[in-house]
Amino acid sequence: MFFKQGRYSGFITPFSYGLDLVIINFLAYYLPINFLTPYLFHTYISIAWIVIAFSVEFYIIYRYTKVTHILKLLFRQFFFYGLIVYAFIGFFKQPNMSRLALAKYVAFVFIAVFILKFVFYYLLMKYREKIKGNIRNVVVIGDNKKTQQLINVFTERTEYGYDFKKQFSPKKDEFNIMDCFRFIVKNNVDEIYCSVSELTNTQISAFINFADNNLKTLKFLPDNKNIFSKKLKFEYYDYLPILSLRDIPLHSPINAFTKRAFDVIFSVFVIFGILIWFAPILALIIRLESKGPIFFIQKRTGFDNREFQCFKFRSMAVNEDADHKQAGKNDMRVTKIGKFIRRTSIDELPQFYNVFFGNMSVVGPRPHMLKHTDEYANKVDKYMLRHFVKPGITGLAQVRGYRGEIEQDSDIQNRIKFDIFYVENWSFLLDLKIIFQTILNGIAGEEKAY
User: Each residue of 171-184: pLDDT tens digit?
Assistant: First the structure.
C-alpha cells in the first residue's frame, strides 16, 4: 500500500520532491529561456528548490493542515524561488537570457505546482475518507466540552484519517487506568488524547510512562494548568488547540527523507567501495579458521518494535547460545579472526546491507536481541522510546563508551539515556559527529569491543 498506516507516510515527501523537481526542470527545458549553460541552470534551480523547500518547510503538511497554510507555503516558496532564478543572470553572466521568459517560467511553474499540490492534497483526503487508508486509531481521555469537540473532529472530519475507538472518563467511579491501558494495547491504538483538567499529576505521569514504553503518541487538550517545564508543541485540529508532549525530529518528513537519502548514499558507497572486494577475502579467512556460515544472521528489534534480520560477519564458532547470550570478556566462543573484527567493528560492515534495505540506519540506537528487548522493556523505564527511530550501525551511546556486554544495571540505563537523547535531539550534524567518532574509535580499537 502506497500510503501505509503509521506515524507518517514515508514515501509521500520523497515522491512530492521528485515530482516537483521534474516539473521545474521540464518547464525550464521546453520554455524559451535562452540559457547558454543548460546543465548549470538545471543543477542550479534543482539545488535552489530543495534548499528553499527545506528552509520554509514547504513539504511539511499534516493531515490536519489547513488550506490557508498550504497557500502561505506556496507563496513563500515561490517568492524566494523567483528571486533565486533571477539571480542566475547576474551570478553567471547570462545577458542573453530573457527576463520576460524567466517571469513566464516562474509563473508556469507556480501554476503547475499549485495545481499538483492541491490535487495531491485532495486525493489524499479522499483516500482516507473513502478507502480508509493512512488511518490512525485514537482514544480520548476525558469527558467535557473540549473532548467532545475533539471527538466531533475525529468523527466528522473523516478526511483527517482518524478512527475514534473509545472515550474514557476519569470523573466516573468505574474509571480504571489499567483498563484504559489494556484497551489501548488490545486495539492497537496509535494516539492518546488526554484532557489535562480531568487528570491528576500521578495519572498524567502514568500516561506519559505508558506512552513512552509502548510506542504510543500522547497529546493533551490544554487548560491553564502549568504541568510541564519542557517546551510543548501546539497543533490545531480544526481550530481546537492540541499539545504534543514530545516532538521527535525524525518524524518530520523532511528530516526522515534527509536521513534516508544519506543512508542510501553512504551504504551504496560502503557496499560497492569496500564490501564488494573485502567481503570475499574475509569470508575465506573466516571459513579457513572455523566451519560454519560466513554471515551471522540474528533476529533483532527495529523501528516501531518490528523484528528484522540483522547481518554480521561471523566472529564466533557456531554455538547454541548465540541468540541468548552476549559475548563477554575472554569469551571462548570468539575465534581469533573474530577478536580482531569485533575489536575494530569490522564484523558490523554487513549491516550496511540492512541500511540499504531500510531495516537500519547508519546512526541510531543499536538494535538488541529479541530476548533483551523483552527483558529491558519491563526493567528499564522508557526503554521502548528508542524504537521511535530506526536502529543504527553505530550510535551516540556507543561512541560515549556504552557498547558491548551489559555487566550491570547502570550500563543499560546509561545506554538508554543516550539513546533517548539522540531520539529527541537528532540532527544531521549530530549523525556526522557520531560517524566521525566511530571511525576514530574503530582505528584505535575499543576496550569493550570483545
Answer: 888 889 999 999 99
216 with 143, same domain? Answer: yes
CA 227 vs CA 169, 201, 215, 234, 398: distances in Å: 20, 8, 22, 15, 34
Q: What is the pLDDT of residue 2?
A: 31
Count CB-CB contacts under 10 A for residue 417.
16
- Give residue 406's pLDDT: 67
Q: What is the dihedral of CA 167, 169, 175, 176, to 10 degrees?
A: 60
In a shared domain, residues 104 and 140? no
Which residue numbers in the chain have pLDDT < 50?
Answer: 1-8, 224-230, 450
In a domain, 7, yes or no: no
Q: Among residues 204, 228, 247, which one ends one of the domains? A: 247
Tell which residue, 231, 214, 439, has the closest CA to residue 348: 439
Contact 431, 365 (CB under 8 A): no
pLDDT at 305: 87
Q: Which domain holds residue 90?
A: 12-131
Q: Are residues 284 and 366 in the same domain?
A: yes
Q: Would you state the pLDDT for residue 445?
A: 62
Q: Supply the pLDDT for residue 365.
A: 93
pTM of the model: 0.64
DSSP string for 376-439 = HHTTSTTGGGGGGS--EEE-HHHHTT--S---SHHHHHHHHHHHHHHHHS--HHHHHHHHHHHH
CA distances to 141, 143, 216, 224 from 195, in Å: 6, 8, 16, 12
Q: State how many domains the chain has.
A: 3
Q: Are strands 240-244 and 233-237 parallel, antiparallel or unpaired?
A: antiparallel
Strand partners, 311: 297
Q: What would the grid cell of residue 267 be?
A: 551504504
CATH number reported for the structural domain that contains residue 201 in this entry: 3.40.50.2300
Residue 334 within a domain: yes
